[in-house]
Amino acid sequence: MADVKFVNKSEKTPIKTLYCIGRNYAAHASELNNPIPSAPIVFIKPATTIISDGDDIVIPAASNDVHHEVEIVVLIGKAGKNIAVEAAGEHIAGYAVGIDVTARDIQSRAKEKSHPWAVAKGYDTFAPLSEFVSPNAIGNPNGIQLSLNVNGETRQDGNSTNMLFPIPQLIAYLSGIFTLQPGDLIFTGTPEGVAKMSAGDKVTASLENGLTTLTVGVKGSDS
Ligand code: ZN
Prior knowledge:
By secondary structure, the protein is α+β, with helices and mostly antiparallel strands. It has helices at 26-31, 104-112, 118-122, 135-138, 167-175; strands spanning 6-7, 13-14, 18-22, 41-45, 50-51, 56-59, 66-68, 70-76, 92-99, 102-103, 127-128, 145-150, 153-159, 185-187, 195-196, 202-207, 212-220.
């Protein structure tokens, strides 16, 4: 896991908190038989989940159903609390594509018991992350294309225009609870098409048809 604790390698900004949003695309909420949320669903992954292009996702021995969730990842570049929706853009330092890897079987058991998702979302290697691109390269945060393929077969292909809570609203909402800091990341939710990955798979994710990309392998815990 080389260079995984930093973003924008030239500047070496340390990554702080990984905020993640659940069920932010209606079609994905439906595919897992979940209701549409009335406010953003927030959870946190440890920074030890982050891996980079060329690394491998490790399937933990405790799971038989590890899923990919491709997501647009926002890098916070400027601290803020109670940020207005209109000012949210000033706090964005970059965008990446990431995968919110999820042990779906462990998560399902946790949901049944109303337990937290930290274990299902938090194993080492469960947050592959691409290099960041400048907000200027992206433009409007409400029209970002994202996709993921496994062994060359497209599994997820979405656009942030379909988010229930758009990126500026997520920054406003999160900053009403937490003080956002430079180096914080926001995994903004996944579109439909989540599915199981297996040892030996090659997984490629992309923003804006290749503006920034990420390719990772998948292996078992004993390989
Ligand atoms: Zn997710």
